[in-house]
Design brief:
Immunoglobulin-like; 466 residues; alpha/beta
């Protein structure tokens, strides 16, 4: 079986090897200002994640190829997936009949299970995709809810961390994500010693050549409230989630994380998923409906414009890879195959293109650009400018006339309207007054969101998003 899986991985990857590799720029690292991500040679990196949590557990290799091909084509850069999966992942075998651990023991990994994981990681690398690899889902450390069982303590967490770190130490497309939807501390319970031990194992095995973050449960807490000062944590992460309704103030969570020292990047690792039921806990009211593409755009754009180093998209059928083999979780309205080409999945790719069409590092969130206030909830506006003031972007979740203070911007400006729904841009008509400009987007009202892009005319950036 191992030989067949290895041959399969080589065959389906070979057509991608001629493409320029994302991993020719050195290891991933934090920028000098502490807020963003780049490669060792200074090439900027925008984290555009997708939650493929059950990728290794529920898909066979043909299905994994189909999924990764789709995500690479849409411009995703990180696939978040779990080695020891959430849904009875220690006892329910993968599609090749293998469980990850022998005797539920983290010190006895099953080589056959991880051989299949190796193949998927290699497929991702060939498609210029990072794997945001969770060594385990959090219920194996912190039960709270879910199947578990809890199998980790600070001793075997170190052993397992060192083993899995050593296995993937030479893979350039691994980002380590601890946590797995659980807090690091709650009331009198402190699980940080377990996560510290796992991180130490990974760091030692990789000779410090690793990038580590942590995926917390949803709510107001970011990793910054628990483990910001842990030396192994390279990047903060929060989860604005699915259970608090529309327009959770993800922008405030970004700004809070950015205020701490030492400075570390942050991002929303799990905003509301496309086609996820709104507020499904403890019991879903169907009248609440589902989050759709507009909800995805509002949350992803506003967290990035507030100063995050990227953002993660998710689809409710894809994270669980819903299909006829599996039990449905929280009312998915379609299977994963039919979910891959939903509008929000394309539209987050347009966001990445927009951000990469201007100098990507050194962005400065600047609420003072917007005259008259930013607004609240569904109408909340976010804005930023380049460090050299050569451009600015303002996201309007509701299309309406906006007035911009231009004191920090060049005198000669070119204005564009960028449409987050289709990724197209058109030049904008602006009215200039003393120290301000006013502009009205091509369409107005709810679900007509726009980005106003203001460029220094001397720079010649061209249409945004190209």
């Amino acid at each position: 079986m191992r030989l067949l899986i290895t041959i399969f991985s080589i065959l389906i990857s070979c057509t991608y090897l001629s493409a320029q590799s994302l991993f020719g720029h050195g290891r991933l690292q934090v920028t000098k200002d502490g807020h963003y991500l780049q490669f060792a040679d200074g090439t900027p990196f925008f984290w555009l994640g997708d939650t493929g949590w059950e990728l290794f557990h529920r898909l066979n290799l043909e299905e994994a190829k189909q999924y990764l091909d789709n995500r690479a084509a849409k411009g995703f850069t990180v696939i978040q997936a779990v080695a020891l999966a959430e849904f009875d992942g220690l006892r329910k075998p993968n599609q090749y009949g293998e469980v990850p651990l022998n005797n539920l023991d983290p010190t006895q990994p099953n080589e056959k299970y991880f051989t299949e994981m190796d193949s998927v990681i290699h497929m991702a690398k060939a498609r210029n995709l990072f794997i945001g690899l969770l060594p385990t889902w959090g219920d194996k450390v912190t039960k709270m809810w879910g199947t578990g069982p809890v199998v980790f303590d600070s001793v075997n967490a170190y052993t397992y961390g060192k083993w899995i770190g050593n296995r993937y130490k030479n893979e350039p497309n691994i980002i380590w994500i601890l946590g797995g939807d659980r807090p690091a501390v709650q009331d009198s319970n402190d699980w940080r010693p377990v996560w510290r031990a796992m991180a130490r194992g990974i760091i030692e095995a990789t000779d410090h050549q690793c990038f580590i973050t942590y995926h917390p449960s949803g709510g107001d807490n970011s990793t910054s409230q628990w483990i910001h000062h842990e030396p192994w944590l390279d990047m903060n992460m929060f989860q604005s989630g699915h259970g608090s309704g529309h327009d959770v103030a993800c922008w405030d969570l970004v700004k809070r994380d950015r205020s701490y020292t030492p400075t570390k990047p942050t991002l929303d690792g799990e905003p509301n998923y496309e086609d996820h039921p709104v507020n499904p806990w403890p019991k879903w009211n169907p009248d609440n409906g589902y989050y759709r593409a507009y909800d995805v755009r509002k949350q992803t754009y506003r967290s990035v414009f507030a100063g995050a180093c990227g953002v993660t998209y998710g689809h409710h059928a894809i994270w669980q890879f819903m299909n006829a083999r599996e039990e449905t979780i929280n009312y998915p309205d379609r299977g994963w195959i039919n979910a891959m080409d939903r509008p929000g999945a394309y539209q987050v790719g347009y966001l990445r293109r927009l951000m990469e069409s201007r100098p990507a590092l050194g962005r400065i969130p600047d609420s003072l650009l917007v005259a008259g206030g930013l607004g609240i909830k569904g109408e909340h506006i976010e804005a930023f400018r380049g460090r050299d003031n050569s451009y600015a972007m303002i996201y309007l979740p509701v299309g309406k006339t906006v007035t911009i203070n231009t004191a920090a911007l060049p005198q000669r400006l070119i204005a564009w309207w960028f449409n987050p729904q289709d990724g197209k841009a058109q030049q904008a008509a602006i009215n200039t007054a003393q120290g301000t400009i006013t502009a009205t987007p091509p369409t107005t009202g709810v679900e007509n969101d726009w980005v106003l892009v203001l460029d220094d005319a001397a720079k010649g950036y061209g249409a945004p998003g190209k």
